[in-house]
Structures are given as structure tokens and as C-alpha cells.
Amino acid sequence: MRIRGLRAWCTARGRGQFALTLTTVVMLTCACGALVVLPNFALPEIRAAQPASALSLGQVAADDPRLATVRRILEPFGEISTERIATGDGQESLVVGHENGQAEMTVLGDELPRAVAAVTELWGPQWPRSAMIVVAGNASEFAALVRAGSLLPGEVAAVTVTDPFAPGAMPTGQRVVFSPDAGARLTPDQLRTLLRHELTHVATRAVTVDGAARWMLEGFAEYAAHRAQGHRFGDIAPTVAARIRAGELPTGLPSDADFSGSRATETYESAWSACAFVAEKYGQTDLVDLYRRIAAGPADSAAQDRMLREVLGTDTAEFVARWREWLSAQPR
Fold first, then answer.
1. Neighbours of 26 (CB within 10 A)
2. Per DSSP, what are the bridge partners of residue 82?
3. Is pLDDT at 276 greater than 70 in this prediction?
4. Does residue 214 surpass a pLDDT of 70?
5. What does the alpha-carbon distance between residue 149 and residue 40 come to, in Å, rounded to a whole number?
6. Lowest mean pLDDT among 109-118, 136-145, 155-164
7. How many C-beta neighbours within 10 Å does residue 252 have?
8. What long-range pairs does 98-105 form, CB within 8 A, spacing at least 24?
9. What is the DSSP string of 193-230?
């Protein structure tokens, strides 16, 4: 089992944007053992917590196999609240948490049908169109839910988890986990946008390999999150907008290394802008096609150059030049 990536949202200039990405990948040698041990690794008092009651779980506990693993993790932390949400095409999603996360669960549950529909409209119907959303009740539970070996930095607001799977197979064990203080640090609108970002990772996971270029993986998810939301360029990418006002345009596509550290916020914004540029100038169909090609293999400059030529009819150097021109013309 692994953590594919931790995408953190924080408040900066009154907005919730990605400020940190942890590239830690945790590989557990025994999946079954890990699921049993994880709830007990954290704080001693966890062992004294009361298990969830069958009443709090309702009928979900009896007939939804997706809940089994999460239930084993959540039960030591207190009573579990679970809600089924219809998310189209006969599919149902789950929103799971505790009483202290009820406000966030309500916001996320209300948004789920719209978010699934929005992601499907962009990506297409080739994904389950359902998801499990979990709101952690405390830092220890958050770490357990995402299979981390230690408590996570406070900046991390949401994590998408996927079981290992063979190429060509449908991923299993996917869930989006929100941190216990995500609702305190993010506005409801920011929570909704973050949900769309994470659901995009769920939808695209089957065609995405580890090591693919992150400017496309994260930029596409950010584009999907903000698409058709009425968000302005300067609201989505204020750091990039400030750079442009100062006469500083990017000289190349974001590198994987820039997604962590002091430049993380600007890098996520820059990746979003590259995908927004493709969608506006070439069309969303070409953006999705480009994602599928770039996400299918590890980052390689020669391969990326070839894919840009095949999909957009341009090489990397010309693409960057046109992107810079587009950035210069954006309202700031």
C-alpha cells in the first residue's frame, strides 16, 4: 500500500491554495498487518476509546464492503457517522467521519454529486464515478487513515490514498482523507474546490503511473478543480500574477522538485496556468489527451517533446513560448 502524494492547502492572501507537497511514498511490507497495527501506533489513550455503534453506521456497515477497512481504523477513535450520497449513473459515494467533523462532512456531501459530475464532464465516464470521503477526527487518526508512519505536518489538508495495482487494472482502496482541521483553515468554497482536485486524482489514477511529470498531474487536477467555477486568474494564481506584474515570466515548465519547499505555492499555480493555457488555446479534448499520454510514463524530456508534437503540433520550446505569451495577456 502507498501514499501517492500529499497535497496541502493553506490560507495565503485570503485564499486556499496548495502550499506544500510531500513526496514521501510509504511502502508497507504486509498489507493486512498494516491495517491492524496502524490504529494502535499513535497515542496510548487510543486503546481506551469506545468502538462505534452499529446504530451510528446504519445499514452501510452491513452491506457496503468499501467501509470495512476504514471502519477498522476509525472505530478505536470513537463513534462513526456515515452517509451515502448518490453521485450519478446509479453510483453511490460514502462520506465518513465522527461527530466533530459533521460540518465538513455536510459541505463535502452536498458538493459530491456536483463534483463527480464536473470531473466526469471533463475526464469522461471511464472511472467509477463514486468515492469514499473521510474526515479525520484528530491528527493520529489522519495519519492512520493515510497509512503514514508518523503524524503529518499541519499544512496537509487532504490526502488521496490508493492500493497498489497492476497496469491496466482498476485501482482499489481509493479514498480521499481530509485532515481534522481542514474545515477550520479552509472556507466551504475552498473545501469544495479541494474536493474536486482530489476527485480528479481518483478519476485519473488508472491511467497515471508513479513518476509521471507532476506539472501535468497536479496542473490538470487544479484545472479541473477551478474549471467553470468563475474563479479569476489572479484569485487562482496570485503568486504567478505578481511575478508577471514584476516582469518575471516562467522560463520553463515546473520541475517535480519545485512542488515541495519554498516554491510550492507558485509551482502549483504555474502548473495550473499551463493546463489552463492548453484548454483555452487548444481545447479541453486536447488537454485530456495530453494528460493521458504524459501520465502514462515517467517524466522524460524527449518523450514529452514528442507528445506535445503529436497532440498540439508543437515542441516544448515553442509550447513554453506560447504559454508565456498567454500569461502576459492574462488580467492580473
1. 13
2. 96
3. yes
4. yes
5. 11
6. 155-164
7. 12
8. 98/74, 98/135, 98/137, 100/137, 100/180, 101/135, 101/136, 101/137, 101/178, 101/180, 101/183, 103/183, 104/135, 104/178, 104/182, 104/183, 104/191, 105/81, 105/133, 105/135
9. HHHHHHHHHHHHGGG--TTS-HHHHHHHHHHHHHTTTT
Q: For residues 332 and 197, what is the distance between their CA atoms, to the nearest angstrom?
A: 23
Q: How many CB atoms lie within 10 A of CB 133?
A: 27
Helix/strand/coil percentages in the chain, nearest 5: 50, 15, 35
- With cut-offs at 50, 70 and 90, classify the pLDDT of residue 63: low
Helix axes 214-226, 102-123, angle to 10 degrees: 110
How is residue 202 written as a grid cell? 481518483
C-alpha 296/C-alpha 209 separation (Å) is: 6
Asked whether the whole model's pTM tops 0.70, one would answer yes
Helices (H), 85-213: 102-123, 139-145, 182-185, 188-204
| Residue of 221, 235, 49 lying closest to 141 (CA atoms) | 49
Q: Which three cell numbers stand for residue 221?
A: 487536477
- Residue tagged 495519519 (cell numbers): 143
